[in-house]
UniProtKB/TrEMBL annotation:
<dbReference type="GO" id="GO:0005829">
    <property type="term" value="C:cytosol"/>
</dbReference>
<protein>
    <submittedName>
        <fullName>Probable phosphoglycerate mutase GpmB</fullName>
    </submittedName>
</protein>
<dbReference type="InterPro" id="IPR029033">
    <property type="entry name" value="His_PPase_superfam"/>
</dbReference>
<feature type="active site" description="Proton donor/acceptor">
    <location>
        <position position="129"/>
    </location>
</feature>
<feature type="binding site">
    <location>
        <position position="95"/>
    </location>
    <ligand>
        <name>substrate</name>
    </ligand>
</feature>
<dbReference type="InterPro" id="IPR001345">
    <property type="entry name" value="PG/BPGM_mutase_AS"/>
</dbReference>
<dbReference type="InterPro" id="IPR013078">
    <property type="entry name" value="His_Pase_superF_clade-1"/>
</dbReference>
<feature type="binding site">
    <location>
        <position position="140"/>
    </location>
    <ligand>
        <name>substrate</name>
    </ligand>
</feature>
<dbReference type="GO" id="GO:0043456">
    <property type="term" value="P:regulation of pentose-phosphate shunt"/>
</dbReference>
<dbReference type="GO" id="GO:0004331">
    <property type="term" value="F:fructose-2,6-bisphosphate 2-phosphatase activity"/>
</dbReference>
<feature type="active site" description="Tele-phosphohistidine intermediate">
    <location>
        <position position="44"/>
    </location>
</feature>
<feature type="signal peptide">
    <location>
        <begin position="1"/>
        <end position="26"/>
    </location>
</feature>
<keyword id="KW-0378">Hydrolase</keyword>
<dbReference type="GO" id="GO:0045820">
    <property type="term" value="P:negative regulation of glycolytic process"/>
</dbReference>
<dbReference type="Pfam" id="PF00300">
    <property type="entry name" value="His_Phos_1"/>
</dbReference>
<keyword id="KW-0732">Signal</keyword>
<feature type="binding site">
    <location>
        <begin position="43"/>
        <end position="50"/>
    </location>
    <ligand>
        <name>substrate</name>
    </ligand>
</feature>
Length: 307
């Protein structure tokens, strides 16, 4: 018959054996089951639409001289660690492409110890601004009905027939957040496969993402509570207390801690595409299982002093 003392000793040996086994497994997989995808989320520089108080949405609007200076100053500031990044992404709209180019221009003209090993910028339509429907290109004071009427009058002045069905559809913040999730799943999956053979621990893949204010707002307000954002210094529109302000060329640093050993990442691409629709309908069930998100810094604008 086993005494209580012997039982405790056997239990102790079992725990030690488990710890040894866990340590052996950890050493076999590089000592880490996670790595960090660090997203530097940047809004484009000031545009003509911003300055004139117009709704840009997915319509094109060129950078102003101020917007160009903002982007160059951000590159010079060193905030983005451009010499250490993994990838650079930008929305396919011209204002984000120009902002990205000027950020890199500012960085390369600044004193650096090593030349950046920057890969080509990857343009992605999923990082676009929200579509604002009929209001795109019109004053922010216009509602949908006023914008539709303005479009109708302009068509008549051109001697054309106004076709309401040609007006862009309005996109919700939830729609934009789903686009982001779709993009993030793809990028995270590529990172998991790329890091699969790595023997390094605590890997951080710094990634620059240049996008738009409403798109970034949709990400932040869906991933974090208002209280969490306020704790990071969030500011809100005086006329709309629910509208988080995202200044031009501000930098928000978001860490995505990826659990690379999750069975989710071992699926075939076709299966993962199916899971994306599941996550869009209820991504909360995956929270903590395939990744965890942590907001490091919100809408930093320290480079403004260099403009």
């Amino acid at each position: 018959m086993v005494s209580a003392t012997q039982l405790c000793y056997l239990l102790f040996l079992f725990v030690v054996a488990c710890l040894v086994l866990e340590g052996t497994m950890a050493s076999n997989d590089g000592g880490s089951n996670t790595f960090t995808l660090r997203l530097f989320l940047v809004r484009h520089g000031e545009t003509v639409s911003n300055r004139e108080g117009l709704v840009a949405g997915q319509a094109e609007s060129a950078l102003t001289e101020q917007g160009e200076r903002q982007a160059v100053a951000l590159g010079k500031s060193g905030r983005l660690l451009l010499g250490q990044y993994w990838r650079i992404y930008a929305s396919d709209l011209q204002r984000t492409q120009d902002t990205t180019r000027l950020i890199l221009q500012g960085y390369k003209s600044a004193p650096t110890d090593t030349e950046s090993s920057c890969p080509d910028v990857r343009l992605d339509v999923r990082l676009r601004e929200l579509s604002k429907g009929a209001r795109q290109g019109y004053p922010k004071s216009f509602n949908d009905q006023q914008a539709m009427e303005a479009r109708r009058r302009e068509a008549q002045n051109r001697g054309e027939t106004f076709l309401p069905e040609t007006v862009p559809a309005v996109e919700s913040e939830r729609d934009a957040y789903n686009r982001f999730l779709n993009w993030l799943l793809e990028v995270a999956g590529e990172a998991v496969r790329e890091q699969g053979q790595s023997t390094k621990n605590n890997i951080v893949l710094s990634t620059l993402v240049v996008s738009h204010s409403a798109f970034l707002r949709a990400i932040l307000t869906h991933m974090f509570t208002k209280q969490e954002l306020i704790q990071k210094g969030a500011t809100y529109d005086a006329n709309n207390p629910t509208r988080l302000l995202i200044p031009n060329t501000s930098v928000t640093t978001l860490d995505i801690l990826i659990h690379s050993t999750s069975s989710f990442w071992k699926q075939q691409p076709s299966q993962m595409e199916h899971q994306q629709s599941v996550i869009r309908d209820g991504e909360e069930k995956f929270n903590g299982s395939i990744w965890q998100s942590k907001l490091q810094d919100l809408t930093w604008t320290g480079h403004y002093e260099l403009v």
